Amino acid sequence: MSLQIKRLEEGVSRRLFDRDGRELQLTPEGEVLLTYARQILKLGGEALSRIVTPELMGLVRLGTPEDFATTHLSEVLACFARTHPHVALQVNCDFTVNLLDDFSKGKYDLILFKREPQGPSGGTRVWREVLDWVASPRLVAEAGDPIPLVLSPAPDVYRKRALSALDVAGRDWRIVYTSPSLAGLQAAVQAGLGVTVLPTEMIPADMVSVSGCLQLPKLPDTEIVLYQAPGHVSPAAELLAATIVAALERRVVAPAVFVP
């Protein structure tokens, strides 16, 4: 690996890594090259899929939580649609309990849903969410007052996590705003109405973590799991499932590179 890095740096006539012992960190030039390299690999994968994979057709029914779909899946699904234009994607966003219920009734080929971390069994784990308490800097919360909460209606997983954690910690709370829409929740929080729960990587620039300043209890992680309908599913559904898993695995990038 060291030799390959050296050849790459010689090829572009730029230093791409800052070295600190055996640990490497990308330089600004390295970050630019990494962005282009990912785009090249993505285009190469699309081209190979179009040439090598037989033309796929049919309908794939996918269920997913709204926040996960908007943050992580939009680009994946758009790429899949471009590569396989004869596959019709039918995507529905809903709460986990509703997704599981409809999945059991045969209404989906694939579902992504949130659950408690359960180890390797049961579906394919594709993502792990680290949760945090967030609010607008405009929020005014007095010490000793019940925590004002902005949450989705039951049976939302984040709502359950928030209320359970506060109850265990003995903190008073009150729900000031409820909406089934992610956009509605974020608008209420941005206006300073209250505190909500979001994955750390989904916290917008105009919101801040308030777990420390409000001394809120730590929230346990959730995980996103992919279920595939039992029995035979179409080749298009199988390929979409593999595409989602591979795409999300590539997004988990280690912060440092260790050279053997």
TrEMBL record:
InterPro entries: LTTR (IPR050176), LysR_HTH_N (IPR000847), LysR_subst-bd (IPR005119), WH-like_DNA-bd_sf (IPR036388), WH_DNA-bd_sf (IPR036390). Keywords: DNA-binding, Transcription, Transcription regulation. The keyword Transcription applies. Residues 1-27 form the HTH lysR-type domain. Belongs to the LysR transcriptional regulatory family. This is LysR substrate-binding domain-containing protein.
